[in-house]
What we know:
The chain is α/β, with parallel strands linked by helices. Helices cover 27% and strands 21% of the residues. The strands form 9 sheets. Strands 5, 6, 7, 8, 9, 10 and 21 form a 7-stranded mixed β-sheet that branches. A 6-stranded mixed β-sheet has the order 31-30-29-28-36-34, with no helix packed on it. The N and C termini lie far apart (91 Å).
Amino acid sequence: MEVHGDAKIHLQPMEEIHAGGGVPNRAVNPGKPLLDQKLQNKQSKVQRLQCQEGLWFMRKLHPWGAPKLQEGQRRAVARTSRPVVSVQAKQIGYHQRTLKVYKKEDNPQKTMEVNGLTPVLDSYDFDLIVIGGGSGGLAAAKEAAKYEKKVMVLDFVTPTPQGSSWGLGGTCVNVGCIPKKLMHQAALLGQALQDSRKFGWQFTEEVKHNWMTMTESVQNYIGSLNWGYRVALRDKKVTYENAYGEFVGPHTIKATNKKGIEKLYTAERFIIATGERPRYLGIPGDKEYCVSSDDLFSLPYCPGKTLVVGASYVALECAGFLAGLGLDVTVMVRSILLRGFDQDMANRIGEYMKEHGVNFIREFVPIKVEQVEEGTPGILKVTAKSTAGDQMIEGEYNTVLLAIGRDPCTRKIGLDKVKVNINEKTGKIPVNDEEQTNVPYIYAIGDILQDKLELTPVAIQAGRLLVQRLYAGATTKCDYVNVPTTVFTPLEYGACGYSEETAVEKFGEENIEVYHSHFWPLEWTVPSRDNNKCYAKIICNIQDNERVIGFHVLGPNAGEVTQGFATAIKCGLTKEQLDSTVGIHPVCAEVFTTLSVTKRSGEDITADGRETVQELWTFAYLNFKFIFIPVDDLGISVVMPDIVRNMPITTAPELGASNLSIFLASSSDFRRSLQVNDSEVLALFFTSWWCDSQAWRSDDGKEYPELEVIHKDQGPTRCPAQSSPESGTVYLRALSKHFLNSGRLVGHLPVLNQLLGEKPSPNIKPKPLLAQLQPVPSGADTGHLRAETGACLS
Length: 794
């Protein structure tokens, strides 16, 4: 008897058998002369009955029922000397032909197919074996169990070079999406603490972050998920083994546990869901001293000064939250950021991270990592070489995190033994549109697929739909188009559909229209931070009724925003439909309902923090303390406190202010703090009489000279003077072509003449905030200035 997996080929003495029917052709008794025809016919009849009886036994028996199977064979060959051949308790044809096919194919399953037979479904140990206990594999296994299939999951984590391993659930749960998002949240809470002071929260104690407290809490949560997955499999009667799966033959897999104990299992079908693992550089010291994302989230010490090697989403996400926790972080980039993503968005992310303290080393790659000092963390010296020349640099860091990509776990699972094709260069598995490999009973899902998205929800969706097609008669296939995703960098990036580069390549630049705009989240206006950093963009196909084919957003909660729009995009959302949608106010997502500026127009998209009514002037009562310092030819400059940081800026010539302007930020230090160039100023406008007389006094209860406002077309226009209700105060009326951005400023007025009249619009009830005027000698120190608090005008 020859054994190949669970398929047993039994060779027993029997006379030659027909290929198709198994009925003796003629009786052969080599040692005796032939009997007469009558005797031959009688013997043939007896043999035929005996063979049929024996084969009946074989067809009824499970292949593991050896005693009864052997008895059936014995009875079938009782009066013959030629072999009878059976596979999986099935009698197959002419033995010489069978052996020839078997030797050629090395495949008992193929032998049965050649002889017109199909396998007995209950002859396998399992209906389905899933190799890999990640999100996709578990989803497929639990889905199959719903249809009362006998299912096994094999999952085994090979420890990293640093010794890290984890439980059931795969990359996403243990060393990917879940811990990454939680640590990203930890960094956001640090920013929220800073913002909270502007919202009235007062705390004097020093705020510090504790790495060990965070990692312990994160790992405790992940541990609860690991246990929950095991319980779910048990409840659904799915067999789970913590063992490494490797194909050893057709329909047969070897499972090796951590003790080295091996077991063989057979299944009618297999799903490969082994995922990917981080790639190493292949340079001296990389595996000895560097960590990967597989190690970072359970690192038993604070990583300290960190070098992140790579520019993938993993690299930027990790660099972002480490910097947000207060660590010194440097990112070493070989070429571009976020390859495969929209490069406009990628570059904006890089600029934001740079402004928030992340250092970037461009066009360099490490060539050696050495340990300078042991410890937790120790000190590592990194030598890097330029990709654009021969320049070499060195640097010392506490931790080196490699995030240069991931490789599929497909090369060591015996795919060659079952003839499954893989891409030899990448290790990816090519499949058809039903996730089927070139071997009909083997399927694959998740990150290991060639030319498919590497996203956890995609693997889950593909796994469930695959099982529904296999066992529930469904026909729905996984749609790999218009899949939303989010990169959890400090400024989150949500995307769905085509990048701008891909859209231009596919449809032609003349056939797409890109609508875009900056926006300023309301939550960020009170702390007055990060204006004109959040960004919204949609890409429309002009030839298809301006259907939205690309959606991109940079801002807080980008994933939440993107998820909702993704459904609309899958339903064929057009720009017209988007414009006709009523926005929710005040939220970030409403910007997509008011996009009007196209990229090709080149028009300004500066965010103003107010309702975007074009060509209106802004009317504001400002709440500052002023200090006037004689400078330059104008005689006066105004130094503003923190309240005006990050306001939109305009140029004086653009407003025709001329020498009537009192320019903000005459010192270079203050210009830098406002992030303005030398040619850019924020201006307030008063009468020339004020400037000429230098009557900058604050006398008790007296009326003040006329205030001057500037209309961009008419030039200076005199307004009635404002009387101060309190000693030493004056109301200042200010105009700007761009809306002034601050939580302490009032919004636009719909009609310009209302700005210039004595009374404000009846729709706006301003609560004037007071501004003190104080004479200060030339050269006075203005560093002590701070903003006055005040309520927003409404």
